[in-house]
């Protein structure tokens, strides 16, 4: 979602033998909440989202686009169940790498390990920023921030996912959009 947290596929070209190309249709679940993450995804084309199930209601937590890497990193690194699901929003072309191959790369190449640590730190900062925005801002302010920081989300993501991400209903989002 954030350009700063993007790990570019080109930087990983030398590791292409470890990657498997995968094409998935829209609305494909790549990881289900509660399952252990064994794969990391690099988006070549398309869009993914992470979401949690709250008593049958899907709450979108993040969006990811071309050039982004996605996994339930906590699960991927600790073998604990994932706290969220990963799903395609659009048809996607993904480069995937297994947990074991990724671990081998990190152990053998310190520069990649440092890059991954920086990536994780930036992702943590983005998560904190989102969390504090939920505490401090009303939905209209959160929508304004979203438009200013990530205008491409408004153009590519269906309204019901944006509403879920903002913590409001689609009807409330329509009202906010109409006020602008």
Summarize the structure.
This protein is α+β, with helices and mostly antiparallel strands.
Explain how this protein is built.
The protein has a domain at 3-108: Sandwich (Jelly Rolls), CATH 2.60.120.10. It is built from seven helices and eight strands; from the N terminus they run ββββββαββαααααα. It has helices at 73-78, 99-108, 110-136, 139-149, 151-156, 159-166, 170-179; strands at residues 20-24, 29-31, 39-45, 48-54, 57-64, 69-70, 85-88, 92-98. With 180 residues, it is of the alpha+beta class. It is 43% helix and 24% strand. α2 crosses α3. The radius of gyration is 17 Å and the shape is globular. A hairpin with a 2-residue loop joins β4 (48-54) and β5 (57-64). The strands form two sheets. A four-stranded antiparallel beta sheet has the order 1-8-3-6. A four-stranded antiparallel beta sheet has the order 2-7-4-5. Residues 1-123 form the Cyclic nucleotide-binding domain. It comes from Albibacterium profundi. InterPro entries: cNMP-bd_dom (IPR000595), cNMP-bd_dom_sf (IPR018490), RmlC-like_jellyroll (IPR014710). This is Crp/Fnr family transcriptional regulator.
Question: How is this fold's topology laid out?
Answer:
Layout: E1 20-24, E2 29-31, E3 39-45, E4 48-54, E5 57-64, E6 69-70, H1 73-78, E7 85-88, E8 92-98, H2 99-108, H3 110-136, H4 139-149, H5 151-156, H6 159-166, H7 170-179
Antiparallel strand pairs: 1-8, 2-7, 3-6, 3-8, 4-5, 4-7
Helix pairs in contact: 2-3
InterPro entries: cNMP-bd_dom (IPR000595), cNMP-bd_dom_sf (IPR018490), RmlC-like_jellyroll (IPR014710)
Pfam family, one: cNMP_binding
Protein name: Crp/Fnr family transcriptional regulator
């Amino acid at each position: 979602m954030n350009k700063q947290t993007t790990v570019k596929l080109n930087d990983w070209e030398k590791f292409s033998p470890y990657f498997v190309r995968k094409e998935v249709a829209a609305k494909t679940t790549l990881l289900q909440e509660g399952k252990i993450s064994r794969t990391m995804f690099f988006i070549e084309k398309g869009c993914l989202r992470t979401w949690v199930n709250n008593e049958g209601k899907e709450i979108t937590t993040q969006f990811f686009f071309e050039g982004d890497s996605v996994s339930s990193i906590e699960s991927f690194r600790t073998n604990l169940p994932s706290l969220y699901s990963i799903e395609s929003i659009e048809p996607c072309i993904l480069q995937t790498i297994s947990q074991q191959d990724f671990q081998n790369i990190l152990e053998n190449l310190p520069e990649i390990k440092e890059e991954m640590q920086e990536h994780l730190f930036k992702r943590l900062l983005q998560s904190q920023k989102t969390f504090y925005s939920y505490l401090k801002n009303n939905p209209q302010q959160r929508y304004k921030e979203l438009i200013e920081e990530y205008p491409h989300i408004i153009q590519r993501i269906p309204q019901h996912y944006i509403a879920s991400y903002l913590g409001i209903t689609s009807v409330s989002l329509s009202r906010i959009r109409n006020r602008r």
